[in-house]
Amino acid sequence: xxxxxxxxxxxxxxxxxxxxxxxxxxxxxxxxxxxxxxxxxxxxxxxxxxxxxxxxxxxxxxxxxxxxxxxxxxxxxxxxxxxxxxxxxxxxxxxxxxxxxxxxxxxxxxxxxxxxxxxxxxxxxxxxxxxxxxxxxxxxxxxxxxxxxxxxxxxxxxxxxxxxxxxxxxxxxxxxxxxxxxxxxxxxxxxxxxxxxxxxxxxxxxxxxxxxxxxxxxxxxxxxxxxxxxxxxxxxxxxxxxxxxxxxxxxxxxxxxxxxxxxxxxxxxxxxxxxxxxxxxxxxxxxxxxxxxxxxxxxxxxxxxxxxxxxxxxxxxxxxxxxxxxxxxxxxxxxxxxxxxxxxxxxxxxxxxxxxxxxxxxxxxxxxxxxxxxxxxxxxxxxxxxxxxxxxxxxxxxxxxxxxxxxxxxxxxxxxxxxxxxxxxxxxxxxxxxxxxxxxxxxxxxxxxxxxxxxxxxxxxxxxxxxxxxxxxxxxxxxxxxxxxxxxxxxxxxxxxxxxxxxxxxxxxxxxxxxxxxxxxxxxxxxxxx
Amino acid sequence: xxxxxxxxxxxxxxxxxxxxxxxxxxxxxxxxxxxxxxxxxxxxxxxxxxxxxxxxxxxxxxxx
Amino acid sequence: xxxxxxxxxxxxxxxxxxxxxxxxxxxxxxxxxxxxxxxxxxxxxxxxxxxxxxxxxxxxxxxxxxxxxxxxxxxxxxxxxxxxxxxxxxxxxxxxxxxxxxxxxxxxxxxxxxxxxxxxxxxxxxxxxxxxxxxxxxxxxxxxxxxxxxxxxxxxxxxxxxxxxxxxxxxxxxxxxxxxxxxxxxxxxxxxxxxxxxxxxxxxxxxxxxxxxxxxxxxxxxxxxxxxxxxxxxxxxxxxxxxxxxxxxxxxxxxxxxxxxxxxxxxxxx
Lengths: 530, 64, 270
Ligand code: SF4
Ligand code: SF4
Ligand code: SF4
Prior knowledge:
- The structure holds three protein chains of three kinds.
- Chain A is 33% helix and 16% strand.
- By secondary structure, chain A is of the alpha/beta class.
- In chain A, the strands form five sheets. In chain A, strands 14-18-15-17-16-19 form a six-stranded mixed β-barrel.
- Chain C folds into two domains: 2-100, Creatine Amidinohydrolase, Chain A, domain 1 (3-Layer(aba) Sandwich); 124-255, no CATH class.
- Chain C is globular, with a radius of gyration of 20 Å.
């Protein structure tokens, strides 16, 4: 997030939520949005489904699955036509506006309406609400990123925010709501194939030398593989062993059949987790790790806030905190790691990640934490980014054309399937399905279908149906609801007995970010006679 | 106690704008005619009040 | 500070096995169970505006060990909650020692330590379409017709994200099996929590129980004026049953069945 969660409540005059079912997936951020709305801020919601937040919106639209670029371009078309944009801001702080405008000029409300299914008057109203109530915050989540055009979608969000001068101001910004409490932290720590901590490229000689010196070994300057590439590499026997920590790819990876096939080819699989996940069940060796509350450490959340997590009790049984397991394994393999606490590791991190974490210590983090960049011990942290300039200097407008999703509805597969979360469970359910109270809410998987479609295929609530995609087939029970549009289906991702990735594709992913298109796929749905 | 409990629920429903849809009447097994009268009168009343407003709210999945 | 001394005495003289209060952690106040083994921790005992349902923690502890003697830092609302928990046999008064803090102001003391002394501001949109936190139930009833009362409460309820925070924080929600989780009463697995039945069930359950601490309203991430709703519940209970929960340790009229009463059913108005 460029900005901070608290700003939505106190500073934003308009909040535009696209591709995020916020009340179900980010409830505490939804709490701020509700508060802002009740204090008078405008709320715009765009989502292919009728999400709960739409009930509170000044304007809510259901655009077609995968039509985000067109919708955003349409809004920007209206904004430019009506001179609602910020020419001074654009001239001072941005570049490449003309090429961008040439593309935007083509996206008239009528044309956009054809692509998105949103009425022209709603597109105009959205544009007005967003641009005429400054500062306006733009929030998005996986509904924007999990597409073949994920990067295009994100760039379009940035275009819109820059066009209205909303980047670098309190209460504005481009705010991706990250999918997990520490996914920001994991990326900050270099949990990506091409960077060290703080996004220092492994291929950068200076950075590479710095880390090589600090760790006393020569480090590779070639980026590693993304998870999408790893599966390919296993298939081709280029990868023989795998060490998976706190992840359950058997459910979270895009193509179940493909992945299982690949995992079988591994000579050795090591899984480290707090529970025996689906993936752990097929491991050769399992390391049981300590859970939250049993270990010290830090998280960095979606607003770049690094916070301490404190140990409240000793780990259960003979489990160990992850850092101790990794240290022991490393030592056993010949590279001694002898950290004496999580804090020592944090001090190493801050020492090597000067620009963003340099000024942080456990003591300074306290209860509330600090938001990076926090480069030195007197720096108060940074609630919002790009105040004077962008990281790269000028903010670049990207001219982006709408592209269809990889799969469209067709004769054989007439429905579009989208996947996501429901409020009671988290991800692959490893942590939530063991809770009695959450199990009461949702015991097993289901597929949401519109009442009209249910009538056509002659099913009642809870009837079993068969879903078929180009990848595979799955049996699941139907939930009939106007939460989905006619022609669309929704399948939650939490249930191992109904793994969504039997149906989703591993070939459809964003060419740059390699994020799979979990949000659109063509399927067929049939009634199963009982 | 029943009468107090019902009085309480009636009060609560009224507070939420759902009054008139709950009624309590003592009818013994010998009072067949009274039973018929009360049920008819209540059915009539509910019919005149129109459809349950909550259904509209639960189906209103969108504000805009 | 006298409170610290008193609490230390309770522990040192073995009058209690644990003392529930608050202490500071990195500038933030958290609930804490002080014990004899670490009696000096009591020097960090904090009294401020913040509140947690310490009585609820006491109930949990008592369930695990019914003989445990528990000391509690008690405000007025905690005292009412304790009375109610005694009435419902959730806690044994013989095992509880309280140290009272100055909270609700009275003619005798104008200062009080409670987050509720500054009223919660209600935004303009909420004032126009929802329910004002600070409205009195009587005024709300007088100022809005039936259709408007319905639409205002339904606006509030449809925001509910079913976090169960209101129940979980409530000192008097102590049921082992909660009706709100019963699939025949409230549809599971959907948001918002089924409107309005989820809230009606909880409201009726609060009849004769709610001690008006306001913690539920404080906890609610959807900003639903729950305290105001249960105030109406309390008004109705006091009008109809003549009972104020938590006032005394007495049998609740809600636990008595079959007593004769002088009240005739209201006539059907058509
Ligand atoms: S005010 Fe809320 S939390 Fe407190 S007793 Fe009443 S219902 Fe429970
Ligand atoms: S809501 Fe009702 S059933 Fe649930 S814990 Fe509270 S009083 Fe008990
Ligand atoms: S605390 Fe609020 S949002 Fe959570 S269940 Fe209760 S009423 Fe609903």
